[in-house]
Amino acid sequence: MNRLVKNIVKFVVLVFIQVAILNNIQISGFLNPYMYILFILLLPFETPNWILLVLSFFLGLSVDVFSNTLGMHASACVFMAYLRPYILNYLSVRDGYEQGTTPSIKHYGFAWFFKYCMILVIAHHGFLFFIEVFSFTNLSETLIRIIFSTFFTLTLLITSQYVLFKK
Questions:
Q1: Do the Cβ atoms of 119 and 103 come closer than 8 Å?
Q2: Which whole-number Å values give the CA distances from 75 to 50, 81, 152, in the listed order?
Q3: Burial class of residue 119, CB neighbours in 10 A (0-12, 13-18, 19+)
Q4: Distance between CA atoms of 25 and 31, rounded to whole angstroms?
Q5: pLDDT tens-place string over residues 36-88
Q6: Between the CA of residue 59 and those of 12, 15, 96, 164, what are the distances in Å?
Q7: Transmembrane ranges (predicted)?
Q8: 4-8, 22-26, 86-90, 109-113: least confident range
Q9: What is the pTM of this model?
Q10: By C-alpha distance, which of 20, 10, 16, 22 is closest to 104?
Q11: DSSP code, position 136
């Protein structure tokens, strides 16, 4: 199966999982898992920035349409996609990234993948939750939501790496 078909299937499956299952998990409003961002995280290193931004917009818009959230996920995904090249450059391995690989535990190890995911998931969740509240009045509550949701999302992302992409 070529790379384009794999990415289309990954896009559809992650949006379906998010909309059908994960959007229904909310523990006291503090724990909201967002696994659909795995699509952005796992795009190949060679993906041009403009394609990354367009795909991220459509990914977020797809979740917005089914969640009735009026562009919040689209804007958070575009923000995350905008930061991704800078984070990859910051976390760059000594010899650079191998051609044809994707950012994953399989190729770059747990420590690298965890740092990469943690930075981008915090950026996504921070942007999303502050856009949702659109105020700094309940800053402590918003920060707690970011921390708990980031922890749960990271757990899902790393577990998915071990389950789906075994060596």
A1: no
A2: 15, 10, 21
A3: middle
A4: 8
A5: 999 999 999 989 999 999 999 999 999 999 989 889 999 999 999 999 999 99
A6: 9, 7, 28, 21
A7: 7-27, 33-58, 70-88, 108-131, 143-164
A8: 22-26
A9: 0.91
A10: 10
A11: S
